[in-house]
Amino acid sequence: MAAMMDFKLSLPEASQNAQQVDIAFFSVLAISGVILLTLLVLLLIFIVRYRKGSRAKRGPLPEWLKREFELGWTSATIFLAIFIFWWFVGGSIFPPRAFPGQLEIHVVAKQWMWKTEHPDGAREIDALHLPVNTPVRLVMTSEDVIHSFFVPAFRLKQDVLPMITTELEFTPTELGTFHLFCAEYCGAQHSRMTGQITVMTQSQYARWLRLQPHGDSLVREGETLYAKFGCGACHAPTSRIQAPKLGGIAGQAVALQTGARVVADDAYLRRSITDPRADIVAGFTPIMPSYGAVATSSEVEALVAYVKALPKEEQQP
Amino acid sequence: MSDSAYLRPPWKNLERQHQAVTLGIWAFLGSEVLLFAGLFAGYSVYRGLHPAGFLAAGRETSIVFGTVNTAILMTSSLTMAMAGRTAKARLFHAARILLFATFALGLLFLVLKGFEYREDIHKHLIPGPGFPISVEGAALFFSFYWVMTGIHATHVTGGLVAVLRLIVTSRNDTAWLAGSGSQEATALYWHLVDMIWIILYPLLYLAGRTHG
Amino acid sequence: MSETLSAIPDYLHDGTTLRSWLFTTDHKRIGILFALAITVFFFIGGTAISIVRLDLLTPAGDLVSDDTYNRLFTIHGIIMVWFFLIPSIPATLGNFLLPLMIGAEDLAFPRLNLLSWYLYMGGATFTVLTLILGGVDTGWTFYTPYSTMFANGAVLTAAAGVLISGFSSVLTGVNFIATTHALRAPGMTWFRLPLFVWSMYATSLVMVLATPVLAMTLVLVMAERWLGLPIFDPSRGGDPILFQHLFWFYSHPAVYIMILPAMGVVSELIACFARRRLFGYSFMVYALVAIAVIGFFVWGHHMFVSGQSAYANIVFSFLSFMVAVPSAIKVFNWTATLYRGSISFEAPMLYAFGFLGLFTVGGLTGLFLATVPIDIHVTDTYFVVAHFHYIMVGGSVCAYLGGLHFWWPKITGKLYPEAWARFAAILMFFGFNLTFFPQFVMGYLGMPRRYHVYPPEFQIYHVLSTSGAVVLGTAYFLPLAYLLGSLWWGRNAGINPWKAKGLEWQAPSPPPHKNFPVPPHVPDEPYDYHPKEGPLAEAAGDVS
Amino acid sequence: MAREKIPAKSFWKLNRDLVMTWAGLCALLAITCTLAYVPMGRGNLPVSLVIAAIKAALVGAIFMRLSDHNALNRLAASVGPIWIFIMFVLMGSDYFTR
Fold first, then answer.
1. Cα dist from C52 to B110, C45, C62, C100, C133, whole Å
2. What CATH code is carried by the domain that includes residue B17?
3. How many Cβ contacts (< 8 angstroms) between chains A and C?
4. Which of A203, C60, C530, D73 is the most interior residue, by most CB within 10 Å?
């Protein structure tokens, strides 16, 4: 019972986003409150004044007045709806593009745990340590069903899908420990798929990071997989089989067979591994098999990280 | 001889009963169209995501069966429409012959579809182990192929039962064909099933024919 | 006239064998058959959620296992949505009243109507079979790939049950549309139709056009799970978000299948007990149709965090705000109807007031969920749970009970005990708010839905909610008891105990098999509670 | 009821428009099947769909008598395609901008 006394009526605003969401939330709450209150007061007045047998005046209303009322509140409601949409939705919806300097954390969800991995390879389970006031970008995927990464203190939520990567960007602004929940129903232990987000000062974070046992970094893991799947047999600079060379390809424009040009971003690289025939590079025959069913989502992520890290090669004569 | 013998409760007026039956069947057809809408949407999304797979898979369906079956179903629609026209002209004997033809053509469609399925199974065109086309998305094409043709065949079967009912009921009472709204209702349903097939035909049989 | 009436048996006594009920084509008897079936399911679904609420008293979830918990809330959702709410008002009150209100003998296709009931029962059988097989744990939303590749419950029978009962709703919709077009009594023009009839018409449009999409979606789920065909499976090229699009294309409009009929009922109640013509009748009609149509454009607001594109989020957010407009117009019109009325407070009117308050809260919290940044925070939390229960339970169930009380004298010929009914209505209002208001707060604080165990700081809200549920449950058992009791002990109601307008009150209570001994003719506007002086008023009085 | 006798000529007259429609449908079927083998790049799909739409419209207008039905039935018939259009546009708002 002591725990019950522990309840809170407010939620920390632990990210920049949280403040904006709260402003929107409480503004809409105020607007709704005024509407509800007006309605209840009107109801009460009418109920008392026009109760059966009261002496209030009761004749019919002129038609024009009714029409004025209808048009009045119809247009007022439309105006209010558009206003709320424009004010709270219009500006704040597009997620900012990735930019350098973001702390890129890879998140893999599976029944029923969260696995997180820091850029230098430090790994955590059901936990994530973050430095305060540092922009963070979460790159997330799932190994089985749909999960959802939900941190109430950040007012952020994003579904985590199998074979598809979703992202979340935010900047923690408050020190402390916050709940991480899985918000998309994912099976028997859905409610136990929770974790903790710990926001530390930047120096604490650096110290914490040093003390972690370092597994292979994502790039190193990717290198191993590159060898395991024998990607080099075709893609290595020395290979005699015709395949696009990968060194320095990340971020470059690639000409496709269809005549289109696409930028080799993460999504492109991922697609090229899981579904090579989706975008065939100009001048190459589509001989690469799909690795979509062979490599797990986290392995694909590691491969992408490795390919991005490959240096640009010398032009072959 | 009076058609008012075909009034059913709660109707008092045959013309109004016909109007209601026709409107009801049109509303139901609207529902049927939306039933296939989900399949069309799924097909379109996946064709957009995996164009190569859909083209590679589209080549493997049997264009001969597909085209012949389209022609058969369109012809059955013709005989059905003619049956309505002749029944209205009170040429009930001719109308019944045309209904027989409709039934036979519908049955022929299903028989040919069965042979086509046998050929498909023979070529292992069922997504799963042993599926011969390795391009990503080809298996999705065949998932939709089986579900679309399967649901359509169910509708043809339902239509055949309805046509059979017309034939059986009009055996001793040929004027029933004009008097009750059943012939028109059945015809509208039959034409819709034909129409759906007309849309399915290019999706399932004409994709990817230009290559290989 | 009364002598001729007594000669014709009423529909309840027009045949007493089981056969005369199971093979009836009388819309009134079919309405009763539906009412019996949905009442059973209401209490099964209610039992499931009672166990859930008891379990949630402690943060550790000490009462049942994780798996049982998941099966309980799933069966609660499936039963309450498809076997109670969807058929609740249309298939019972709608079936009973639609022909009466337009002055017809029956629905356009009486045998099709009976088929609707059998299809519903077919679906119900599969649902009961699902329960016997140990239930299903996918949630009522059947999200893939969980439902197709990972769940171990009886997904196939559950999906089959929903699929089959869906055809029941399509056929009911077709029947109502044809009836409204073709069987109106002489003089019953479109703009003389009671709003309940309009609401049935709008609901039918949604049932006919949305339900088949759900049917096909479930067929695809079954094909993937049962036959192993790749359809939504992402590891074989499929897109799980496609499932969500198709599912919500039905399931958002399905909310309007539940709430539009409730709006129709409440319009009748308020007009009758305020003794006043509905304010802005034609605007009410347009609003109903607008909600039915725009309701199809907003499904993507269930998917703001699903991985759907940001542009789609904007589009669906805007459209969701637009659907709020006609709903708001209806609330304003109901309130304005009270102005210069002569209001009395019989139980149905108390339910109508309850509806007005609860639906408004439900609708206003809908604004939060249409606002993308807020929705991202509160979706999949108890905020959403509270929101849709305010609409579906506070709105639809409240209106259903109000309507049931209002037309009970017509349906059974008996009066229910007024004091008990008022007490139950008030108790329900308090129980409901105590159950669901705390859920808004804990939802905002981050309590995710479908959680069996939860952090202890949310316990206080769960305890409040569970105690409210006890009150609410009691308030639902009361009508079951006194309404059934009134069948034996209730006073005879007479033709028109409320002195209400509307053709149904011109038929005997309970009506005979063909409803009207004398075919009705409609000379008046609807809700003509304040007839003008002079000869016209005399003429209007003669008709009944 | 006695078997009715119909002169072949009036029988043809009665059904002429239907048979002509059927002939048109068959011609369109032959055209679309042939065109499927003509390389048009991305053009093949739209061409085959447009032909399919024309065929469906013919069936609707002539066989299903929409051209001489009342406005209400035509409205009912148009609702299905309109709703499919809505579904595609709104789902497209997601898939085309992912």
1. 50, 11, 11, 41, 20
2. 1.20.120.80
3. 257
4. D73
